[in-house]
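SEQUENCE AND FOLD
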Amino acid sequence: MIRLSSLPEDEALARCTGGLYCPAQQTEALIHFVSRRAMDIDGLGERWLISFFEHGLIKTVADIYQLHNHADEMVTFEKLGEKSVQNIINAIEASKHTTLARFIYALGIRGVGEGTAQNFAQQFGDLDSLMAASIETLIKTPDVGEITAELTYEFFRAPHNIEVITALRAAGVHWDKVEQVASEGLPLDGQTWVITGALDSMARDEAKAKLQALGAKVSGSISAKTTALLAGDKAGSKLTKAEKLGIKIVGEEEFLALVEG
């Protein structure tokens, strides 16, 4: 059974046997879930998560949203006074309103980084559609190969994971409706772009959004299917690979002319 975890892509997939949870995977899942790029729960750091886990206050990420019921006990922890406890509880409450992409990323599905989570959100529009998708349907998502599709499919078929997701939604975790971009007829429809390096005029996430608004699919890796590489400063290995494959290299000035033209 695949657990909620955040193991690196190049590690073997750890699995649990039997009906018991794997403590090591659970603490990894908790740490990943609250991180800045995931649910961004400020003040609930690794130290407190592990401590709360060891004391039985939390076992899964869904239990984080029940910590307000343990406020009196939390205050007794060393160096964690009433004000700190209240700040943590407030941060947990604030995190309930998130984005679908952040939520997907926070689940810690093997092979699903921020970019893939964003692509899943855009491709499916809602969590239920993603959870119900077949491997064949998942592969149609930009930057998703067979392995990631299989891992995602298995993740959403594991009863424990479904229980945790259901509990998170029941606790009030929610997101605004995803506005899906219809790419048909747009200037970059059918094209796949990759962004690398630092841009002077905007963050890479903003550049990605501008490309998607023009109908392009934005991938995280270079392949023979890549149409163009947007290369900023210190582009590195992706630029080298793109040059070897004969892929079009687009500088920031040309990119700005394209998106603003």
